[in-house]
Q: What sequence folds into this?
């Protein structure tokens, strides 16, 4: 049965026709989201992380009447504490991922050295996307993505370009209409528009002209506008306006919001990828208006509101919400199915179908995806690489489930032992019955001494339990590379660096798609406005490499400080050949000290050199007018300013002629150059003082 469904769904990927096969897509969705015990795996992972089991009570104790189906063990009221070991590990890894993301260095590099200026502009464009346009969304999606990753073992993002239309009120007066008519050629329809508006019998023609001038204006509103112009001399009517036009990255919950065939090893080679949305009625109807979704299909989908595909048996139920407070009663299940295939003309591309499993064989939309990068708009993260199949990666709860249970068992035993030792069972004569009360200062009448006594508790050393708990915690720290005194720092660094490299690699792929979409959907003039650069960027993202890097050692402020001191005092003085890029060194140092300040203060090397050249040019121009030179003390940029000064003087014949005739200009320039040369000499003297000889 399972093999038949696999073959059926495999055939649909070779070629797409004029209409999608919704039945095959629905069967593939069922297979992708339900086979191989997906629901049981999700339940187990969430139950471990969130410490959930049958018969739980709020007070953390076991009670016979708590719905366990069996008596509480070892007694009614025994300890049943929650140990959030997996939750603690997940949140620690989320902290590490979030910190490394926001402190990482984003770089856009050219694939060809001749495109250096374009790469600088592309870098500034990406910096605007991440730290301005997408910032609010990323602050949420970055953390959510890492939560999914370490809980379920894999996750992904949906990278799209979001365009949403809103409405604004357009104000129009008869004076504006008459001005427009006056500017129109004589004899044209627009030239006669004021007369048409004044004629009640020409309302239809006037309304059509308004609709031509303002697309998407409904006929009813156009007629009302014409009447208002005639009666009141002014009118208002709604016109569409772009309210959202930006790249979007959405973190997706595995098997719920994102799923694909279980044999998939690389998301870009998957036969089909499913993205599940839960939409409101208003959102669905907006898609009908703005993206031309099928209206009849939308009405049928709205009638299925509150019914969803269950992971286990694909019947209509609340699915994943069974173990949470999630309520989707007023939402509609909508699925996007993305396929890489060729059309009837043999042209390859990514095609997507919008459908709902509850609506049968109908679909809401079917079209080729027009993204220039030609890839699925998805990027996948895996917590570990233990198998080629993506879904084989394990989350933290799967790894440390038994460790958490061991710690819980020991904690419960210590609590129960303490309870038993505090008030042990009491030996009483059978004749006394069950009316004995025990408590502080309670008087217990006896017939003879010794007839009532406490039963000796079992011989046990609670310290053994604490030793075992400490051993499990040390094992957990070492396995996940958590920085504690029990784990050698080198192991922590290696494991955390491997984790971060994998984490940032996924973001590199995501930002590469973001850059491609930005180049595709933002015009040249808008890019020039954003980057303050006249450089025109190519539309092909293949011309650039996007990289995100972060060194885990930068989390140690003391280590970073010592490293920067060593570079400044030991390495820079020896750099007589100038092989060290000092501009990049300043950028790295400032980012290590304060990433926020680095974003505000550091400019790219190209603009920085241009800024210094402009300053030098301005200073020489002011000296030529008779102004005194601007002198600097121990200027680290003196060598570069000397070079720029030579370029400015040699390229301007007027400066050369003025130097022969103007003693003041000559004296000021000589003082300016001597000041720069003195700074260069001071730096060389510092090297000589360390080495004993001139380098």
A:
């Amino acid at each position: 049965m399972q093999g038949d469904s696999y073959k059926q769904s495999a055939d649909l990927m070779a070629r797409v026709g004029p209409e999608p096969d919704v039945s095959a897509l629905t069967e593939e969705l069922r297979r992708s989201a339900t086979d191989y015990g997906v629901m049981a795996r999700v339940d187990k992972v969430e139950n471990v992380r969130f410490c959930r089991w049958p018969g739980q009570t709020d007070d953390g104790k076991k009670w016979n009447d708590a719905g366990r189906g069996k008596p509480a063990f070892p007694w009614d009221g025994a300890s049943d504490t929650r140990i959030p070991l997996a939750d603690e590990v997940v949140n620690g890894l989320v902290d590490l991922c979030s910190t490394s993301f926001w402190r990482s260095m984003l770089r856009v590099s050219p694939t060809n050295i001749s495109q250096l200026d374009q790469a600088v502009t592309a870098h500034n464009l990406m910096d605007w996307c991440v730290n301005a346009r997408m910032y609010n969304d990323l602050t949420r999606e970055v953390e959510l993505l890492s939560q999914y990753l370490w809980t379920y073992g894999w996750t992904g993002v949906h990278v799209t370009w979001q365009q949403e239309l809103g409405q604004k009120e357009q104000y129009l007066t008869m004076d504006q209409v008459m001005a427009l008519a006056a500017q129109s050629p004589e004899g044209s329809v627009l030239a006669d528009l004021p007369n048409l508006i004044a004629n009640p019998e020409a309302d239809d023609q006037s309304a059509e002209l308004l609709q031509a001038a303002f697309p998407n204006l409904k006929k009813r509103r156009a007629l009302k506008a014409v009447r208002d112009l005639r009666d009141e001399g002014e009118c208002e009517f709604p016109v569409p306006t772009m309210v959202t036009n930006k790249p979007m990255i959405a973190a997706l919950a595995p098997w719920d919001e994102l799923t694909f065939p279980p044999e998939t090893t690389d998301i870009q080679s998957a036969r089909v990828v499913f993205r599940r949305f839960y939409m409101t009625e208003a959102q669905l109807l907006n898609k009908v208006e703005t993206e031309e979704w099928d209206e009849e299909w939308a009405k049928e989908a709205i009638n299925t509101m509150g019914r969803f595909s269950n992971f286990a048996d694909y019947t209509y139920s609340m699915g994943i919400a069974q173990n949470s407070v999630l309520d989707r009663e007023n939402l509609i299940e909508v699925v996007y199915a993305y396929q890489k295939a060729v059309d009837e003309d043999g042209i390859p591309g990514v095609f997507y179908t919008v459908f709902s499993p509850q609506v049968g064989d109908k679909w809401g939309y079917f079209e080729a995806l027009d993204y220039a990068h030609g890839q699925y708009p998805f990027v996948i993260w895996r917590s570990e690489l233990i198998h080629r199949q993506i879904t084989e990666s394990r989350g933290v709860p799967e790894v440390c489930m038994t460790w958490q249970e061991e710690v819980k068992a020991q904690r419960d035993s210590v609590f129960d032992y303490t309870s038993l030792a505090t008030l042990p069972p009491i030996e009483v004569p059978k004749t006394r019955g069950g009316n004995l009360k025990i408590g502080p200062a309670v008087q217990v009448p006896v017939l003879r001494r010794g007839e009532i006594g406490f039963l000796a508790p079992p011989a046990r050393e609670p310290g053994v339990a604490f030793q075992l708990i400490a051993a499990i915690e040390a094992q957990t720290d070492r396995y996940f590379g958590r920085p504690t005194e029990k784990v050698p720092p080198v192991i922590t660094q290696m494991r955390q660096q491997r984790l971060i490299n994998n984490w940032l690699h996924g973001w590199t792929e995501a930002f590469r798609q973001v850059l491609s979409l930005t180049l595709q959907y933002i015009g040249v003039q808008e890019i020039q406005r954003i980057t303050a650069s006249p450089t025109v960027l190519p539309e092909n993202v293949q011309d650039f490499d996007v990289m995100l890097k972060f060194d885990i050692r930068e989390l140690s402020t003391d280590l970073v400080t010592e490293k920067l001191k060593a570079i400044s005092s030991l390495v820079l003085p020896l750099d007589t050949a100038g092989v060290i890029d000092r501009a990049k060194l300043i950028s790295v140092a400032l980012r290590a000290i304060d990433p926020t300040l680095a974003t505000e203060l550091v400019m790219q090397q190209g603009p920085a050199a241009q800024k210094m050249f402009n300053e030098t040019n301005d200073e020489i121009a002011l000296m030529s007018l008779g102004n005194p030179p601007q002198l600097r003390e121990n200027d680290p940029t003196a060598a570069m300013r000397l070079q720029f000064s030579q370029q400015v003087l040699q390229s301007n014949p007027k400066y050369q002629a003025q130097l022969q005739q103007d003693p003041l200009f000559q004296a000021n320039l000589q003082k300016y150059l001597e000041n720069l040369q003195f700074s260069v000499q001071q730096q060389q003297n510092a090297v000589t003082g360390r080495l004993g000889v001139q380098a």
Summary: Residues 411 and 465 are 7 Å apart (CA to CA). The radius of gyration is 36 Å.
